[in-house]
Design a protein that fits this description.
The chain is α/β, with parallel strands linked by helices and about 180 residues long. Helices cover about 45% and strands about 20% of the residues.
């Protein structure tokens, strides 16, 4: 009798864990990032860190985990809301925490890049892991973005944006979303 109770408890715990994992996979977080002053540490903007650096016209966003057909629309909606709120000229997607980018989700990213470009905004990708980079290259998105919009990490992206902003090049983003 006690053994049967323990087995039921374990089964409930396993089911609860699977439900939690499924929820996380289908609803990953999307963060706006800032940089801890005086460091190269980028972290989600929060009330606990009001002094974190941000840059006018630059939106740094991060999502986590595997991006695939089932969660890509939700991620896209969250990012679109952040873009509408911030109205940046450049959106940098930090890909360091993206473990996989499935083909359908990649097509949605391509469409998002085009939509941003049509609204005079540029999409940059930063910190692509080798597998995600291979998918981006294979899809043709890498050709569209060019090396100037696929960056090694967020620090490089911020430095590039600051250089562009100091020379007023941000205002000269052409129809391809690339600086002139």
């Amino acid at each position: 009798m006690i053994l049967l109770g323990t087995l039921k408890g374990i089964l409930v715990a396993v089911i609860a864990s699977l439900v939690a994992l499924a929820y996380q996979a289908y609803n990953p977080p999307v963060y706006v990032l800032g940089r801890k002053r005086g460091t190269d540490v980028f972290r989600p903007i929060s009330k606990e860190h009001p002094d974190d650096e941000t840059w006018p016209g630059l939106l740094l966003v991060r999502t986590e985990g595997r991006v695939f057909f089932a969660n890509a629309p939700g991620i896209g909606e969250k990012m679109l809301a952040l873009v509408h709120q911030a109205n940046p000229s450049v959106v940098v997607l930090d890909c360091s925490a993206i473990s996989d980018l499935e083909y359908t989700a990649l097509n949605m990213l391509i469409a998002a890049e085009e939509k941003l470009r049509n609204h005079d905004k540029a999409l940059w990708l930063a910190a692509l892991n080798p597998e995600v980079l291979a998918m981006v290259k294979q899809s043709g998105l890498a050709d569209r973005l060019g090396r100037e919009r696929m960056l090694f990490n967020l620090e490089v992206a911020v430095e590039r944006y600051a250089r562009m902003n100091s020379t007023s090049e941000v205002a000269s983003i052409d129809s391809g979303g690339v600086q002139n």
